[in-house]
Amino acid sequence: MIDDAQLLEQLQSKTYKEQAFKTLLTLYKERLYWHIRNIVKSHDDADDVLQNTFIKIYKNINNFKGESKLYSWMYRIATNESITFINKNAKRLQVSNEEVQQMAINNLTTDVYFEGDAIQLKLQQAIATLPQKQQLVFNMKYFEDIKYKDMAEILETSEGALKASYHIAVKKIEDYLTKN
C-alpha cells in the first residue's frame, strides 16, 4: 500500500502523475463524495462538486507543500468547492444560502439516491437551520467521525473552537428536534 508521501511524490512527477492520480481517486473519491454530499445534499450536485474538486486537486497538486496532510488539503478544497457551489446557487436564484440549503433538503424526498427515512430527513432539516460553520463541524464529526485535530487542519481553526461549535450545534439540533 502506497503512503501519502510516496503518492504525493508521484503526483508531483511528470512521469507518474496520471497513474498516481488514478490511485488518489480510488483512495479518496468515496470519502470526499460523502463529505460533499453532506454539505450540498443532492447526489447530482455532489457529483458535480466532486468533479470540480478533483480538477482543482489535479491542477494544484504541484503547489501542495506538505504543510498539512494530503487528505486535509483535499478536504479543504472539497469544503471550499461545496460552499462556492451553494453561494453560486444562492446568487443565481437570488435567495440566501439558507434558502438554497432548505430547497436542497425539500428535494431530498424526490432524490432517488436518498435512502433516509422520516427521522433522517428531520435531522437534515435541523442541520440546515445551523449557521454554515456549525453545519460543517457537525457533519464532519457526526457523519464522518473526523477527529478535531484533522478538522482543525481542514477548516483552518482551533480544536477548541471546533469543539465549542459542535457542542452548540448539537444543542440547537436537539432543540429543533424536540420542538418539531
UniProtKB/TrEMBL annotation:
The keyword Transmembrane helix does not apply. Residues 121-173 form the RNA polymerase sigma factor 70 region 4 type domain. SUPFAM superfamilies: Sigma2 domain of RNA polymerase sigma factors, Sigma3 and sigma4 domains of RNA polymerase sigma factors. One of its GO terms (molecular function) is DNA binding. One of its GO terms (biological process) is DNA-templated transcription initiation. Pfam families: Sigma70_r2, Sigma70_r4_2. Belongs to the sigma-70 factor family. ECF subfamily. This is RNA polymerase sigma factor. Keywords: Sigma factor, Transcription, Transcription regulation. Residues 26-91 form the RNA polymerase sigma-70 region domain. The keyword Transcription regulation applies.
